[in-house]
Design brief:
This protein is of the alpha+beta class and 113 residues long. Strands 1-2 form a two-stranded antiparallel sheet. A two-stranded antiparallel sheet has the order 3-4. A hairpin with a 6-residue loop joins strand 1 and strand 2. The radius of gyration is 26 Å and the shape is elongated.
Length: 113
C-alpha cells in the first residue's frame, strides 16, 4: 500500500521519516449552565431526532494525518494557520552552533567628507 503525505500528497517511501499528526477536538465546560432559549420538551425532541453521530461530534472529534517532514514543520510553525502579517516561513533554520557573522563596523569621519 502506497502512503502519501495527507497535506501535500508526497509519496512516503518505506523507511522515510514520517510524522503522525493526531488532533482531538473536545467540548469544554466552564461550569455554568445557561437557560435554553427553547422549552425543555422542544430541546429534548431535537436531541432525540438528531443522529447519534452528529451529537457525538459536538462533544468529541478526532483527526489522524500522516505528514512529510516539510509539512510537519509548516504545521508546527503555525498550527492554527493564523495570518503571519506577510512573514514567510523559512525554508531552513540556521544551525545554532554556527556563529553569527560579525557586525559591520562604521567609522565616522572617513565617509563624512
Amino acid at each position: 500500500m502506497e502512503r502519501r503525505c495527507d497535506k501535500c500528497g508526497r509519496i512516503l517511501k518505506p523507511g522515510d521519516l514520517v510524522y503522525r499528526l493526531e488532533i482531538q477536538c473536545l467540548s469544554d465546560f466552564d461550569g455554568i449552565i445557561t437557560e435554553p432559549e427553547e422549552d425543555l420538551a422542544t430541546l429534548l425532541k431535537t436531541v432525540e431526532e438528531t443522529p447519534k453521530e452528529l451529537l457525538e461530534e459536538e462533544i468529541h472529534r478526532e483527526f489522524h494525518f500522516l505528514l512529510c517532514p516539510t509539512c510537519k514543520d509548516h504545521f508546527c510553525a503555525n498550527p492554527l494557520n493564523l495570518p503571519l502579517d506577510s512573514m514567510e516561513i523559512p525554508k531552513s533554520i540556521p544551525d545554532p552552533a554556527e556563529p553569527d557573522p560579525p557586525p559591520q563596523l562604521q567609522t565616522h569621519g572617513e565617509d563624512e567628507k
